[in-house]
Amino acid sequence: MNMLNKITPLVIICSDATLVSLTIDSHTTYFLPEYNLSPKEQRQWARNCVSKVNSGQHCLVITHSDYIIKEFNILIMLNVQSKVIKHIQKVEEYLDNELLDYIKVTAYDLCNGELKLADISPEYGIEVKSMDESIQAINRIVDVIVWRDEDE
After folding, report:
1. What strand order describes the sheet that includes 114-117?
2. Which of 65, 97, 129, 141 could form a disulfide with 34 if both were Cys (CB 3.0 to 4.6 A apart)?
């Protein structure tokens, strides 16, 4: 697939569909790594994946998991060098080899059959609009249910 930059150590495809098999010679491919993992295990998997990337392995991750993407985002945001961030890293027990330089990441959002390059920044991590929209919709509905006015 020429859309994948083989120089980038970590390529992430966030998908709302099942993809036909991908073969990228220079990347280890993880297809739906969240399968049969609890949210806690998904977060740990993401940390282990970043450790591999930081040791020189190239990875292709195809996921539907917001937990994995959010953990990648935490690892990107913790990579900023400041006293406050270093304190948070220590308190939350993140290791230096788990921190992720956003430059090492290319991410795509596959939504409704269309593949779009995702925005990535050191301040916010990976922006996955398809996942964010679904999560916001769920949160909005829950808020309406929880805070409903019984007099209506």
Report:
1. 28-31, 59-63, 10-15, 105-111, 114-117
2. 65
Provide the whole-model pTM: 0.81
Higher pLDDT, 2 or 130: 130
Residue type, 147: W
Q: What is the pLDDT of residues 37-79, one digit of tens each?
A: 999 999 999 999 999 999 988 888 988 899 999 999 999 999 9
List phi, psi (to 5°) of 137.
-65, -45
Decide if pLDDT at 16 tops 50.
no
Distance CA 66, CA 80 (A): 22
Residue with tokens 């970590």: 10
Q: Average pLDDT of the chain?
A: 84
DSSP bridge partners of 12: 61, 107
Residue 83 CB contacts under 8 Å (≥ 6 apart), including other chains:
none
Cβ proximity of 16 and 132 under 8 Å: no
**Residue type for 28, please?**
T
Residue with tokens 């991908």: 22
- Check residue 7 and report its DSSP letter: T
Using the Cα atoms of residue 59, residue 64, residue 66 and residue 68 in order, give the sign of their dihedral: negative
pLDDT band at 14 (very low <50, low <70, confident <90, very high): low
